[in-house]
Request: fold
Amino acid sequence: MMGQRGTGEVHRYVGGKQETGVVDVQDILKQYRNGTTKEYDSFVSHLTNPGIEPALLIACLRGLRECVTVLGKHFEVLVGVILKIDWASKEKTVIQEYQAFVLNLVSAHTFYLRACLRSLVKQFMPKLEHTEGDKIQSVDDRTRWQHEQIHTNLHSLLRAIIQIVPMSPTVLMPLLSDCFPYMTKEAYLQECFVRNMLQITYYLPKLRVQILEVVVDKMTKLDVRSPRHEIEEAEPDNSEDVDDAIIFDMEDVQNMFSDKKESKTSTEEGGGPMTHTDADKLDVMMTLVLRYIQNVCYQNGELEWESTKKLYKEFLLVFERILLPTHASCHVQFLMFYLCSLKPAICEGFLDYLWKRVQDPNSQPIFRQASVAYIGSLLARGRYVHVSTVTACLNLLCHWIHRYIDQTAYLARQADVLHHGPFYSVCQSVFYIFAFRHKDILEMKTGFKFVKGLNFQTIVTSRLNPLKVCLPVVAKTFASITRLHQLAFCDTIIERNSRSVLPTVSSNTAAPTRLTNVNPLDSFFPFDPYLLARSGKYILPLYREYEGNLPEEDDSMSEDEDDFLPKADIQSSSDQMALSISPSSESHGKTSKDFLQYGISPGFKHV
Reply:
C-alpha cells in the first residue's frame, strides 16, 4: 500500500524479526543526504540480497520511482546496486516495475544512461553454472528457452529507452563493442551475444552497419586463429555425412525462409560441435549471421528485393573495411559468397565493384590483387554464377591483360612481381577460372571460337612470363586443359621456367637491387573449400568443387634437371602440390578431385 509520495510497503528487520510496515523512501534518502546512514544502509542491504522477495523488491522499486528526481550523483552507489539486480528472470510484475523505474531514471537523469545500457548489454551473456574443472555445463533446451525469455525482457526495456532518449544509439554502439565476449569465452556465450546484437538491428536499423562491422571483425579474429590445416587435422573424416547434408528437400529450404525469429537451436542444426575450439565458435557465429541474412532477405519464402539490396550494400561496406584487407581468413568471406547467390544482380554488382578496384591505378596494388582474387574465386566456385557472366568477365580480364602487355612490351625483360603484381594476379585468376569453367564454356555453340579469341598463347608467351609466377598447380592444370583443346601450348615454357629461379626484384634505399625466389601469389584463393560443419548447409549446395584430374608430371624431366632449382624452391613446390592433394582434403565437402584448393584469403592486415 502507498501512503504519501516516495513511500512503499517494505519488510524491515528489527531485532532479527521480519516486520511489515511502510517506509518513506524519500525520507531515507533525505536522511542519507544529511549524514544519517542507518536506514539507508538497511535499505541498500535489502536490494543487494539475491533472494529478495518479489513483493519487497516491487515495493522498493515503486518507492524509488516516486522520488526518482532526487536520485542525483550522490546516489550513484544505490543506482549501481539496482542495476545489478537480476530482474529479467523474475515474475512479470517485478519486470514491469523495474522497467518503469529505469525509464523514469534515464528520463530524469541522462547521466545514468550509459550505466543502464551497459547493464542491459552485459546481460546478453547469460550466467552459466560451472562443473568441476571450471567447465560450463551443457546447455539443454529448457535453459535455452529461459535465456530466450530473459533476452526478450532485455530487448523490451532497451527498445523503450531508445524511444525516449534520442542519444541512446550513440552511447549504445561503443558498449556493444566493449562488452563483446573475448574470443576465449565459451561458444554458447558468443552465440547469445551475437544473436542479441543482431536482434537490435530489427528495431534500430541505423546501427546495422556498425553492428555488422563489429560482429564480422570478431568473427575474422576467430577465423585467423583457425587455420585451414589445423581444422583439417582436428576434425574427423565425415565427408559422407557432409555429402548427405548437401542433399535435402526443397521443402527444407522453404522452412528456412519461413521463420523470421531466430531459432533457439538454430546453431545445432546441420551438424554437431566441431573439435577445433575456435572453429566451433566461428561455426556458431557464421550460422547465426547466415540465418540472419535469410531472415532479412526473405519474407514468406519470397525474396524481398529492396531489403536484400540494402543489406548487400551494408555488407559491402563491411567487406571493404575488414575482409578485403585481411590476410589469412578462410571462412568469413563466405558471407559475401552467400549474399551473391541470392540474386544474379547482386553477384554482378559485386563483380563490378571488384573489377573497378582492379582497374583503379590509384588503388594500392595489394587491394587490386585481392580484388581480382575474389573475382577469380567467385566465378570458379559459385554454382549460381551463369556461364554468360563467366565469359563476360573473362573477356574483360583478357582484354585488360593484352592491353597491359602491349603497353609494357618494350619495358619488361623478365618476370617482375614487384612492379607488375596486379598483372600476374589477373593472369592467375584467368587461368584459375578457365580450369574450373572450361567445360561450361566449350559446351556453348560459340564457346571454342570465344576461347580462341581470348588469345591465351599471346599471354603465356609474353615477356612478363605469367606462368613462371603463378602457382604451379594452377599453371600445370591450365596447360593440360589448353593442350588438350589446342588453345595454347605451355609445357615448353613451364619446363624452361622450372629450371630457373623466380626472379622477384626487390630493393631498398640502403642496399642494391637483388633477386629472390619468393612467390608472393601463394595464398590467393578466398573461396577455397568450406570446412565448418553447421554453417556448411548454407554454403555447400552453392559451392562448386573441381572436376578434373591432377595433371601428370613430366617423366622426361630427370633428377639432374632438378639441380637447376634451389633446394628451397624444390621443397616449396612439393609442399604446394602436397597441400593441394592432401588426403585430409577429402573431409567437409572436398573430394580427392578438388586439388585446386590452395590457400586463404588475400590481404595484408594480419589480425
Q: What stands out?
A: The CA atoms of residues 3 and 528 lie 71 Å apart. The longest helix spans residues 417-442. The chain has a mean pLDDT of 81.
